[in-house]
Amino acid sequence: ICFVTLLSHKDGYEKYTAWKRIWTSNGKSEPSPKAFMADQQLPYWVQCTKPECGKWRQLTKEIQLTTQIAKSYRCGMKLNNSTKIEVSDQCSMPEDLRVAEVSDHWWYSMLILPPLLKDSVAAPLLSAYYPDCVGMSPSCTSTHRLLGESNAVKMEHLKTPPTIAGMNKYFQPFYQPNECGKALCVRPDVMELDELYEFPEYSRDPTMYLALRNLILALWYTNCKEPLTPQKCTPYIIVRGLVRIRCVRETERILHFMTRKGLINTGVLLVNPDQPLLPKEYHNKSVIVVGAGPAGLAAARQLHNFGIKVVVLEAKDRIGGRVWDDKTFRGITVGKGAQIVNGCVNNPVALMCEQLGIKMHKIGERCDLIQESGRITDPTIDKRMDFHFNSILDVVADWRKDKNQHHDIPLGDKIQEIYKVFIQESGIQFSELEEKVLQFHVSNLEYACGSNLHEIRSIDYSGEEVQLTATDGSLWTAQKVLVTVPLAILQKGAIQFTPALPERKMKAINSLGAGIIEKIALQFPYRFWDSKIEGADYFGHVPPSSSKRGLFSVFYDMDPQRKCSVLMSVVTGDAVATIKNLDDKQVLQQCMTVLRELFKEQEVPDPVKYFVTRWNKDPWIQMAYSFVKTGGSGEAYDILAEDIQGTIFFAGEATNRHFPQTVTGAYLSGVREASKIAAF
């Protein structure tokens, strides 16, 4: 006889059928009587919050566990509706013997059904998923799907990334169904490979792991200004039965793993040295970080917060590396190096801005192209040539798919080749202005791809400890060393390694290029460009010829509030060589000549202040960012990131294949290496 048939005459059957209806509407798993018992009938277990106690107690059947109860429960507390009455001396009562069994390795394998969390904080972010596929109960109001809505309404709902009230719009920790390519997020319904490696016991049924991991991520992104601890997570783990105890204990393991990997508890967190983020078994190592750029600082902060002893050595008289801000322009910060964040969603820079309470200004899409006659280029011409230029890049991408490194040629040469073939075969003739606009877009590509105190002299890793020698003879020793110097420094052999770096790594180092970009910033007595630019964040300069390409091709308005009068421009590609031997005044004169051509209809005043960067002459940087040389491949970034004997590690934008050429890439590489070092 069917078990359900037997139940049909019992008290509570109506409750079961109502639950079954809700479960079927929202979930994907079978609404079996066993699932009903686990979801609705088992008692809750809660832990005493007294530091000297911590015993687990079973609540009576009628009590619904809430986050507030879990945060404040004490042994003997009588929970009668909203009244909480604490009975003294109940902590001395022994704990139920079943609690100890929960920690046994075999206990989890005996579970008939995986735990599904009730009212998980992650629920609003996962509304497009079946809740029981991501570790949540389908019976809760918070997990009810868009039932009864038209497909059009559902599609409109999916267009907007789900969020939690008060959460930064750039925080999107989970992929949505059928979504791909979003940076730094996870599939809420699937374990990643490194998670399976760390937690193989969940490979058969990952539901419990996914429930806890998703909860932890959601809690972190709702408050990223404070370290997330297991104790802060516990009250939000709402599930019936003894399995709640197992979930709470597993949370500590999962949270420590996610912390080590840099998924949570990262950025500019201030962590009490007496309460490090990782347990003591990670603390027994010493690390030296060479270089205090974004990669080195990110790694050092992570390692310090983990509880690992770390020292940072920097050759220059400042930190930041290729991030160097000038704040002398009457309250406007002008970056001599990196300043623009490309892609804010899940970007660690956006995370750090949120932690520090710094607002990010979104640069508008409008960019008027001004000719040296002073005329603004017709937007239709710009759009036409932009489309043509991107079509050329698509052809290059298709051509590249079938070629190996031996058939590689410079990107600029290939663009010119395809462009000439197109002109010959199509018979289309572009005007002189259109040709100039095309050169502007090529110069922007060059902007993206580069162009043609303790100065460490040697690193000896032949012994049990690594020995670093500075140019002044100072000696430093550590068990692990993280090298974060720019690619150009490694290429020039400024640091001698003993033993020498493996041939494979040296080949990768030399297969990448060290590109140069220079900047000029100018402060004027007034904003002469406002009437023509009309509030745009930047404007373009159409070069009069290909020989002038890359020379002040874009001018950025550095004050989004439109109160100060500061412009910044860049020199890229072959144009860098043309200013290399000029002094700053000569570079300024060239820049002013361009501005006066662009704004011929008015008087352009002389600047009251300016600077010109000289990254190529900086002995400890010598570059802007890396690029793949002709004949090279992206694999070089991965090889550069490989450690040597678990002793020497490497970080920096040139070691990040997914995010090269960016502060984001440098920062993430530092977090990546901190994780590797902690795990060794």
TrEMBL record:
<dbReference type="InterPro" id="IPR036188">
    <property type="entry name" value="FAD/NAD-bd_sf"/>
</dbReference>
<keyword id="KW-0804">Transcription</keyword>
<dbReference type="Pfam" id="PF07496">
    <property type="entry name" value="zf-CW"/>
</dbReference>
<keyword id="KW-0479">Metal-binding</keyword>
<dbReference type="InterPro" id="IPR002937">
    <property type="entry name" value="Amino_oxidase"/>
</dbReference>
<keyword id="KW-0862">Zinc</keyword>
<protein>
    <recommendedName>
        <fullName>Flavin-containing amine oxidase domain-containing protein 1</fullName>
        <ecNumber>1.14.99.66</ecNumber>
        <ecNumber>1.4.3.2</ecNumber>
    </recommendedName>
</protein>
<dbReference type="GO" id="GO:0040029">
    <property type="term" value="P:epigenetic regulation of gene expression"/>
</dbReference>
<dbReference type="InterPro" id="IPR036388">
    <property type="entry name" value="WH-like_DNA-bd_sf"/>
</dbReference>
<keyword id="KW-0285">Flavoprotein</keyword>
<dbReference type="GO" id="GO:0140682">
    <property type="term" value="F:FAD-dependent H3K4me/H3K4me3 demethylase activity"/>
</dbReference>
<dbReference type="InterPro" id="IPR007526">
    <property type="entry name" value="SWIRM"/>
</dbReference>
<keyword id="KW-0678">Repressor</keyword>
<keyword id="KW-0863">Zinc-finger</keyword>
<keyword id="KW-0158">Chromosome</keyword>
<keyword id="KW-0805">Transcription regulation</keyword>
<dbReference type="GO" id="GO:0050660">
    <property type="term" value="F:flavin adenine dinucleotide binding"/>
</dbReference>
<dbReference type="Pfam" id="PF04433">
    <property type="entry name" value="SWIRM"/>
</dbReference>
<dbReference type="GO" id="GO:0005694">
    <property type="term" value="C:chromosome"/>
</dbReference>
<feature type="domain" description="CW-type">
    <location>
        <begin position="39"/>
        <end position="99"/>
    </location>
</feature>
<dbReference type="GO" id="GO:0008270">
    <property type="term" value="F:zinc ion binding"/>
</dbReference>
<keyword id="KW-0560">Oxidoreductase</keyword>
<dbReference type="GO" id="GO:0001716">
    <property type="term" value="F:L-amino-acid oxidase activity"/>
</dbReference>
<dbReference type="Pfam" id="PF01593">
    <property type="entry name" value="Amino_oxidase"/>
</dbReference>
<feature type="domain" description="SWIRM">
    <location>
        <begin position="177"/>
        <end position="275"/>
    </location>
</feature>
<comment type="similarity">
    <text>Belongs to the flavin monoamine oxidase family. FIG1 subfamily.</text>
</comment>
<dbReference type="InterPro" id="IPR011124">
    <property type="entry name" value="Znf_CW"/>
</dbReference>
<keyword id="KW-0325">Glycoprotein</keyword>
<dbReference type="GO" id="GO:0005634">
    <property type="term" value="C:nucleus"/>
</dbReference>
<comment type="function">
    <text>Histone demethylase that demethylates 'Lys-4' of histone H3, a specific tag for epigenetic transcriptional activation, thereby acting as a corepressor. Required for de novo DNA methylation of a subset of imprinted genes during oogenesis. Acts by oxidizing the substrate by FAD to generate the corresponding imine that is subsequently hydrolyzed. Demethylates both mono- and di-methylated 'Lys-4' of histone H3.</text>
</comment>
<dbReference type="InterPro" id="IPR009057">
    <property type="entry name" value="Homeodomain-like_sf"/>
</dbReference>
<comment type="subunit">
    <text>Interacts with its cofactor GLYR1 at nucleosomes; this interaction stimulates H3K4me1 and H3K4me2 demethylation. In contrast to KDM1A, does not form a complex with RCOR1/CoREST. Possible accessory component of the polycomb repressive deubiquitinase (PR-DUB) complex, at least composed of BAP1, one of ASXL1, ASXL2 or (probably) ASXL3 and one of MBD5 or MBD6. The PR-DUB core associates with a number of accessory proteins, including FOXK1, FOXK2, KDM1B, HCFC1 and OGT; KDM1B specifically associates with ASXL2 PR-DUB complexes.</text>
</comment>
<dbReference type="InterPro" id="IPR050281">
    <property type="entry name" value="Flavin_monoamine_oxidase"/>
</dbReference>
<keyword id="KW-0539">Nucleus</keyword>
<keyword id="KW-0274">FAD</keyword>
<keyword id="KW-0156">Chromatin regulator</keyword>
<keyword id="KW-0217">Developmental protein</keyword>
<keyword id="KW-0597">Phosphoprotein</keyword>
